[in-house]
Predict the structure.
Amino acid sequence: MNSATILSESSPKMEVDQENRVPSTRSSSPSRKRTSLTNSLPLQPSLAKKRVVLGELASSPNIGSGQNPNCGSKIEKCPSSEKKLTREPKEKKRKQEPSDVIDESFGDLKKCSFSSSIYGHLHSLEIEEKRRPLPDYMEKVQNGITVNMREMLMAWLVEVTEEYKLVSDTLHLTVSYIDRFLSSHPVSRNKLQLLGVSCMLIASKYEEITPPHIDDFCYITDNSYTKEEVVEMEKEILKLLDFEIGTPTTRNFLRIFMRAAEEKCKYQELQLEFLSCYLAELSLLDYGCLQFLPSIVASAAIFLSRFIIQPNTHPWSKSLQRYSCYRPIELKECVLSIHALHLNRRGNCLRAVTEKYMQHKFKGVAMLCSPSEVPGRYFKEAVDE
């Protein structure tokens, strides 16, 4: 037997049937690590990962649901709150806007004044039509791919971020690019992985200090695509984005809201931040969550995180309401959608994210259990803390 054919069970990757250009799987040389799409099976740490090829997505019965879904590395640490912020609405008798939130209660006035300005600017960007994907592009634009295939691609990209130690912002940007591209360009099944790695290449160049090279992204797909193909796809994506590659993501809003989320509450160090990041990444995999603005997803993730950690305490404070400008009732649909994801009721392909946040460096937040129901009274009014 040729030594090049010696396989290693611990180094999975995606490869493509050269005749049909459909990704398939095989093991590879143990000399380098590789990541793969993982099957959506119940989490069993004692068992080896099983690999699912992109071509099997449409027929896999255990991955996601293609009918009207409800919601949907090393990660750098979410910034902890160093100072407590309190904000008052500019006017009480009209709907509060992000620009109305002004804080002058700290000695560091630059941080306080810039915080509301940054949030106001990010909010104005996130609602721009050109930055929003169509919430129903699978039905209106795509013919060759399915919701299940999208979920599997996102799960694989989570593993790629871990393999190359990319920050969470890179993953969020990558998903944003993919969904915006799919909202206007039909993509065949054999090009879906090419779109994914090309979007991650662009996001890496924007977010990372030392981004992976094109060769790395070709390698991670078992050289299913050439450098020329990746560059050509990169050009198409940048043309669609009009080279405006910086766009607000859920991760940006989590940083802002986390200051208020930790006010007067005692949590295990970094537990709330990591749990919120975990829930936010779960939402990335779910097609149904495209209907929600990133700021709403961030608010819902914090709402649900506080509820999971302290289920007998109202999770939404007036301080958080002033920060985010969202009342609890406005978050209800998104909170319930992410809650369903966390409970894994619909059998989504969440294993990659769950395994990631079971690690000690993330305080094992994926192992925290959530009550089966969120009390309706928590969606009525915010409370003082």
